[in-house]
Write a structure and sequence with these properties.
- α3 runs antiparallel to α11, α4 packs parallel to α11 and α5 packs across α6.
- The protein has two domains: 149 residues, Aspartate Aminotransferase, domain 1; 237 residues, Type I PLP-dependent aspartate aminotransferase-like (Major domain) (Aspartate Aminotransferase, domain 2), CATH 3.40.640.10.
- The longest helix has 23 residues.
- It contains 14 helices and twelve strands.
- It is an alpha/beta fold.
- It starts with a helix and ends with a helix.
- The strands form two sheets. A seven-stranded mixed sheet has the order 2-8-7-6-5-3-4, sandwiched between helices. Strands 1-11-12-10-9 form a five-stranded mixed sheet, with helices on both faces.
- β9 and β10 form a beta hairpin.
- Pfam families: Aminotran_1_2 (PF00155).
- One of its GO terms (molecular function) is pyridoxal phosphate binding.
- It catalyses: L-aspartate + 2-oxoglutarate = oxaloacetate + L-glutamate.
Length: 394
């Protein structure tokens, strides 16, 4: 029997971008001591008090069907968090709880696009973006944000391909680049979105990891609250990656029909997970700051290690838990450099090409291991790149 073209074409017949990660995991399974700087997985797990809250809820009986849009207390708390941070009036009617940010991205594109519609997204991008769009039956259209512009997308580049498109997906703070979109960038994006009558899907899962500058949700811009679907998650802010708890923030009518979609897909999120998320959010900003602290610290250490040399040039990390490093001086692609680094030193990083062509010649380093291991690995990476750069120059 033949499977549908939709599922067969999720990766357009190519790689899903995780090849180096899979190689690293195979080496580890064979007993090779690999240092993994690949995925955005915290090296500290979900806090014990959050797990205790989850356990109490489950033992207390919240293991049956939960309210599909999300329990009222959690939706109220998410709405409060968003209202305080964005300044935009937000109530539970603007909130749908989802099975993680990834499910929210999928649902948002189903809400915005019919089969065959064009859906824009900024390159560089998180690796699942094109596959998510294809999974919903839409056609993914990348828009390059160039390194020479600090990976800030230009309105003219978006406008050039926006005709007839139904949605634009952005991510700030950005994975993999670590940049935060400037107010001017967001104003220009909003103007293009309104001109072409598109939906804006704003992936804001790293809004708790701000190292420099200010995160601005595009919902807060004039005329954008009614055409923006904002994505959030407990994964990065509270180290709850495996709990799969995210949300979509949007206009009330959009949330109503998205709840219908949730009824016909996963039928809501487990109640004890939602109770744990509510408990976690009730701990306030201090809890999020504590989860983010190791990445801020490692980011500062990394900038010191990377200073004073030219073989590896960092894209200045304003937010998120990654470094995007320009290794073009080595003469290698990001894919070539990542594979050679893994072979030579058993250090696994993600090729920039996994995140689109705009990041070609770069590698992404996740700051997700203990400080001493991270610093040693980064120093090894720099020394390796310096040797390759000398050979390339010769």
């Amino acid at each position: 029997m033949r499977l549908s073209s939709r599922v067969r074409n999720i990766n357009a017949g190519g790689s899903d971008g995780w090849d180096v990660f899979y190689r690293a995991r195979q080496l580890k399974a064979a007993g090779v001591p690999v240092i993994e700087l690949t995925i955005g997985e915290h090296d500290t797990r979900t806090a014990a008090d959050i797990l205790d809250a989850m356990h109490r809820s489950a033992r207390g009986g919240h293991t049956g069907y939960a309210e599909v849009p999300g329990i009222k207390g959690l939706r109220d708390k998410v709405a409060e968090r968003i209202r305080i941070r964005s300044g935009v009036e937000t109530t539970r009617d603007n909130v749908l709880i989802t099975a993680g940010g990834q499910a929210a991205l999928f649902a948002a594109h189903l809400a915005c696009c019919d089969p065959g519609d064009r859906a824009l997204f900024i390159d560089p991008y998180y690796v699942t973006y094109p596959g998510t769009i294809r999974s919903g039956g839409a056609l993914p259209v990348p828009v390059k944000a160039r390194p020479e512009n600090g990976f800030q997308p230009l309105a003219a580049d978006i406008d050039a391909v926006a005709g007839g498109a139904k949605s634009l997906l952005i991510n700030t703070p950005n994975n993999p680049a670590g940049v935060i979109y400037a107010r001017e960038t967001l104003d220009n994006i909003a103007a293009v979105v309104k001109t072409h009558d598109m939906w804006l899907i704003s992936d804001e899962v790293y809004d708790s990891q701000i190292w420099q500058g200010t995160h601005l949700s595009p919902r807060a811009l004039p005329g954008m609250a009614d055409r923006t679907l904002a994505i959030g998650s407990m994964s990065k802010s509270h180290a709850m990656t495996g709990s799969r708890l995210g949300w979509i923030i949007g206009p009330r009518d959009a949330i109503t029909v998205l709840a219908d979609l949730a009824t016909n897909t996963n039928y809501g999120v487990a109640g004890f997970i939602q109770d744990a998320a509510l408990y976690a959010l009730n701990q306030g900003d201090a809890a999020e700051t504590a989860v983010a602290a190791p990445f801020r610290r490692r980011r500062d250490k990394a900038l010191k290690i990377l200073s004073g040399q030219t073989a590896v040039k960092p894209v200045h990390p304003d937010g998120a838990m990654y470094l995007l490093l320009d290794i073009r001086a080595t003469g290698l692609s990001g894919d070539g450099f990542a594979n050679r680094l893994l072979d030579a030193h058993h250090i696994a990083v993600m090729p920039g090409e996994s995140f689109g062509q705009a990041a070609a010649g770069h590698v992404r380093v996740a700051m997700t291991v203990a400080d001493d291991i991270f610093c040693d690995a980064l120093e090894t990476l720099v020394a390796f790149a310096r040797d390759l750069a000398r050979q390339a120059a010769a």
